User: Fold CYTH domain-containing protein from Vibrio halioticoli NBRC 102217.
Amino acid sequence: METEIELKFFVSPQFSEVLKEKIPHNKILQHNSRELGNIYFDTPDNWLREHDIGMRIRRFDDVYVQTVKTSGRVVAGLHQRPEYNAEHTSNDPDLHLHPETIWPEGRTVEELASQLQPLFATNFTRELWLVGMPDGSQVEVAFDQGEVLAGEKRSAICEVELELKSGQTDALFTLARQLCEDGGMRLGNLSKAARGYRLAQGFTGSKAKHLGLVDVALQDSVEECFIKSLEHALSHWLYHEQAYVEAPSMDCLNEICYSLSFVRQTLAVFGGIVPRRASAILRQELKWLEQELIWVQAADYLDDLTEDKGHALRKLDTQKTLVKQLKRVRAELSTEEEVLQLLESARYTGVILDLSRWVLTKGWQPFLDAKASKKMSGNLVSFAQDQLDRTWAEMVSAFPIEQTLTSKDYVEEHYHLKRCLFSGICFAALFDQESRQAFRLPWADLAQGIDDLLMLDPVSQLVDQLQGEEQDQLQRWLERQQASILYAMEQTRAMCMEARPYWKG
Assistant:
């Protein structure tokens, strides 16, 4: 068994020229090109896929190699998967070439063998460079260009893979940084096998999904929770980046923004242990990216207001005029083309690479003293309770139940409230599901109420552009909308304060 460690990037066909220019700056140990044909196998019910196992037979020249990749770890384009290879003589699979222990329980090897069938194929030209890095590590750079085939369906392959053949994982990131310094590379978390399954199954695009809770366990240490939280954010981020490229949508951009915010809040939550200097450059780059995407929230509000020809404004005589004005404002914000350019820019790719490297190499550890190291290896539950107690105290102070809050009061606490909800994402899975939902849902509703208030801002900015009765009508409409939202929020806030904190048991 080997453990394959590689970084995968999606590129354009023209990127081969970039490779030919940049790779010679390093020590080239080998260079060749070959034609590869691969057939992937599974059962009719995708038994292997359900167990996160990929099986293929690869042919090059007259050599056949049967490969099985079992469940592994993917962090922002870095793939780490146990891999079993065996020489073969044909394109007919032979499961006995690999250890019986790698196959999922529930079916015998004979049953599984009798059910296997070809599902899809990948045929591509691979240009290979074996690069010697200054630290002695060896990295294989592969430029693959070809297609995935499933029946009559086809999908283009054009990607770069950097695989660590020997040495330190850090060498992968060093070389990747060199290659992406002019842009044109986008980190990929989809393997060729995953793309083949999609093609075979008629996949039509990924849907946006909400940022779920981090899958932490009671036995996890504080450091394990820290790592899981950052990996959780990276996974969510890369999923929605790919989904946006497949079918641009504001929902996907919003989820990317949530991922960014969650990363920054995770760094803040663990900031009492991890010194700020350990992540100073990383936080600076994350802040830059948040600023690049700061327009997303405003665009989201404008899209909601103009949806279905401005249905939200239907009771206003000036509906058509307002919708026209709002669409003009929306058109001045970033376009899909500009977003795609950002996603392939050197600085954007560098942010993800640097964060991935920091997580995988535990880049904070050299900055920890003995006391901090002990805390990192300490009990997660007590740490989580302390952090949740702190955010709860902040919320009680920000939304005091004894006074009536105005729209301005709520809006001023918007960012603070969302950060506190993000804190809960790190730890909530440690506690009873029913209790945590009863506590978190009203706070999430309160955050949504603030969003509803903020959505009125683009409309309120148009009041002065109207005159007479039209202006008065719009002003009255805004006041009614605001009053209605505030009334609901005040009821929700009372529920928030009455809910028992789930971590107190």
Observations:
- The domain at 379-504 is CATH 1.20.120 (Four Helix Bundle (Hemerythrin (Met), subunit A)).
- The chain has a mean pLDDT of 91.
- The longest helix spans residues 468-498.
